[in-house]
Specification:
- This protein is mainly alpha-helical and 115 residues long.
- Helices cover 78% and strands 4% of the residues.
- It has a two-stranded antiparallel sheet.
- The chain has helices spanning 13-38, 45-82, 87-90, 93-114; strands at 6-8, 11-12.
- α1 (13-38) runs antiparallel to α2 (45-82) and α2 runs antiparallel to α4.
- A hairpin with a 2-residue loop joins β1 (6-8) and β2.
Length: 115
């Protein structure tokens, strides 16, 4: 599978990898900005115990989003390699169930953040 392989629509493997990289850089800048904005609000240890878990959760959502993109590329690569072999090698019910579960968890976290 090459980097110019189209995955869906006009998205290529290269586009997905660039999106993962861009997301990581953007998330880093956003976290640094968020920490910079929250620093003046932390006046004692009690304030820190409230702020740090929010930052941690924010980081985890971004990391999980990138993990899903990486897993998607891995699935496409496996499918590409699997087309040369048997379907049994490609479809692993446990992995698919785990991906669906993780996707639902992220969706719920994002819904809760929007509320």
């Amino acid at each position: 599978m090459g980097l110019d392989t189209t995955i869906f629509g006009t998205k290529t493997v290269s586009d997905i990898l660039k999106e993962i990289y861009d997301n990581s850089r953007s998330k880093s800048k956003q976290v640094n900005a968020l920490i910079g904005e929250l620093k003046p609000l932390v006046e004692n240890i009690g304030d820190a115990t409230l702020v740090v878990p929010m930052i941690k959760e924010y980081l985890e959502v971004g990391v999980k989003n990138d993990e899903h993109l990486i897993k998607m590329v891995a699935l496409v690569q496996r499918f590409d390699n699997g087309s040369k072999g048997s379907e049994a090698d490609f479809f692993n019910p446990e992995e698919l169930a785990k991906l669906m579960e993780q996707s639902e968890e992220i969706g719920k976290k994002l819904d809760n953040k929007d509320e």
